[in-house]
Design a protein that fits this description.
Mean pLDDT: 85
Helix content: over 70%
Order of helices and strands: HHHHEHHEHH
Strand content: under 5%
Largest sheet: 2 strands, antiparallel
Number of helices: 8
Oligomer: single chain
Strand order of the largest sheet: 1-2
Radius of gyration: 22 Å
Number of strands: 2
Low-confidence stretches: none
């Protein structure tokens, strides 16, 4: 701290915090669309601050702690307040307890991530990352505004979603961190074409496509766990010794 701090990555972290605060203010003004957009912008700033810090070699313990505090506001408190005011208020005590559970699980998720990052284990995320959980809530609200706009089904959907996302954040289910996807190195030409086409599709229908990507990522953890469990069962059966005739009873 006596030698100063790295300005550029911490500016992106401040932008993350600003978007989270803007989202909370928008909820107070009942501007739920802008609140959801602000949470997604916070996720963009959060991705950029880490990327800039790694590329420029400006990572620091101060930046890690500042980033976690900003994430708790932008991806813990802001989506919880948004979900409560937009859909959970009719459930009364159960509604705000669900929102509080989301904040608590998000804080625990961030604390566990800091411990794992200090040990160097960052290939996989243990539990659903809190920005993905917040983006899931924000994109669900944006999708609702774009496609539905009426009806009361949203209340029960968001109620169940908040509990499910809270559980996934503190679970031991592994999620890919995409750290091994180093785009600074040479890649096959087909990957470049795929990324260009993906960007075009996102620009055409940003809410629907991003919602699809987000829900696929959220589901990828449980799906990978089930596939690994089934693979383990198959290997266990193959390694088991064959049953010979006469094993079931005494030899006469």
């Amino acid at each position: 701290m006596k030698r100063g701090i790295y300005v550029l990555p911490n500016l992106f972290t401040t932008g993350n915090l600003f978007c989270g605060f803007w989202a909370i203010i928008s909820v107070f003004q009942e501007k739920y669309f802008y609140a959801a957009v602000a949470i997604l912008l916070a996720a963009v700033c959060d991705a950029l601050d880490g990327k800039v810090a790694r590329i420029s070699g400006s990572s620091s313990k101060f930046g890690v702690q500042y980033d976690s505090l900003a994430d708790l506001i932008s991806f813990g408190v802001a989506p919880a307040v948004l979900a409560f005011d937009w859909a959970l208020r009719p459930y009364g005590k159960f509604g705000w307890l669900a929102a509080f559970l989301f904040v608590v699980c998000g804080a625990l998720r961030l604390a566990r991530f800091n411990v794992m990052a200090a040990s160097g284990d960052t290939k996989y995320f243990k539990g659903l990352p809190i920005p993905a959980a917040a983006a899931m809530i924000a994109l669900t609200i944006l999708l609702y505004f774009e496609l539905i706009e009426t009806g009361g089904v949203k209340d029960i959907i968001v109620f169940v979603m908040v509990y499910l996302l809270a559980f996934l954040m503190v679970s031991n289910i592994r999620y890919s961190s995409f750290k091994e996807l180093n785009l600074a190195r040479r890649k096959p030409f087909s990957i470049f074409i795929f990324m260009v086409l993906t960007m075009i599709v996102i620009i055409m229908e940003p809410v629907i496509v991003l919602f699809g990507f987000c829900i696929l990522y959220v589901a990828s953890g449980p799906a990978s766990m089930v596939m690994a469990w089934r693979k383990k069962r198959v290997l266990k059966k193959l390694e088991a010794p064959p049953v010979q005739a006469g094993d079931g009873g005494p030899v006469l």
